[in-house]
Specification:
Length: about 300
């Protein structure tokens, strides 16, 4: 094996191609030409003496040798990054990039300003914030930390429970004045609902009474949206009634642009969690941002502590 050709740059190209399964996607991500990424892989394979990837017209996959080499590369790259972290920490200035994924509306309204404050405190840390409501593969997309609402299915990530996101039923005062204010859950059947097209079961509304009892009522309506900010605007414009997160509409409620509907009943709260790629959790800048975001998010109105026994 020609060790001089086993460089960190070539290893990084190989690792990302192995994770993303696309030479062109990795070229765009790394800011390189596709021919350069291809050359990195070819020279690395020549250096180690075995094929690492199997290429077809539709996909790129690791060979058995590639899987073993990938694990070794990950360990080496992680050690190199941690060594750099420790060296920078001697002068008390964490640096580098942290990649964060967050549900779009929560990111726009709250997480973005938390990140601004974090960067004011740590000016050498760059943050790449991706806003999407899709459940992405963190490793494949090169993300370090993801903020997610709802149940989780990815057990391979490190989990930090941030709390429960309280939801409320709201509508604009003008809408309620023209259509009438519901006084019991069954009254909702005759109202316009603003529904989320990307949320399963949004045509049915579940409400829990303050004094107990569970009510399930249909939620119909002519408007469906796939973005929390669009739902916020629709509600403020008097397009109907909807269950929504308090952090999404708290300012509109305070300003009187929205009003609570059936305040003695509430939709179930939604879990809010942070997922961290285990291999990245020990990096100082990632750890600092995780702790900073967790502290700031816990202060938001409507974010309640996790149930007892959970952290």
């Amino acid at each position: 094996m020609d060790r001089s050709n086993v460089t960190l740059e070539r290893m990084r190209s190989f690792v990302r191609v192995a994770e993303r399964g696309s030479l062109s996607a990795v070229a765009r991500e790394l800011g390189l030409g596709q021919s350069t990424v291809t050359r990195h892989i070819r020279e690395l394979e020549q250096a180690v003496g075995v094929p690492l990837l199997t290429r077809t017209t539709r996909s790129v996959r690791m060979t058995e040798e590639g899987r073993r080499f990938y694990a070794d590369c990950m360990q080496i790259l992680r050690l190199v990054e941690q060594a750099g972290d420790e060296a920078r920490n001697t002068r008390g200035a964490p640096a580098g990039t942290v990649r964060v994924s967050c549900t779009a509306a929560f990111g726009v309204l709250h997480v973005s300003r938390f990140i601004f404050a974090f960067q004011d405190r740590y000016p050498d840390v760059a943050v790449d914030l991706s806003l999407t409501d899709e459940r992405i593969d963190l490793v494949r997309e090169g993300v370090d930390v993801a903020l997610r609402l709802g149940p989780l299915t990815d057990s391979s990530m490190k989990l930090k429970r941030l709390g429960q996101s309280r939801r409320v039923l709201v509508a604009a005062p003008d809408y309620l004045a023209s259509r009438g204010r519901p006084t019991r859950p069954q009254d909702l059947a005759g109202h316009e609902g603003v529904r989320m097209s990307n949320v399963a079961g949004s045509d049915v509304l579940v409400l829990h009474g303050r004094r107990g009892g569970r009510h399930v009522v249909p939620l119909a309506g002519r408007l469906r949206v796939d973005h929390g900010l669009a739902a916020r605007e629709a509600l403020a414009a008097g397009r109907g009634i909807a269950p929504t997160h308090l952090w999404l509409v708290g300012d509109l409620l305070a300003a009187g642009r929205l009003a609570l509907v059936l305040p003695d009943y509430s939709p179930p709260a939604i879990p809010l969690n942070m997922l961290i790629v285990p291999e990245r959790s020990g990096i100082a800048r990632v750890r600092l941002l995780v702790d900073f975001l967790a502290k700031e998010i816990a202060r938001l109105p409507g974010i309640e502590k996790p149930p007892p026994g959970r952290k």
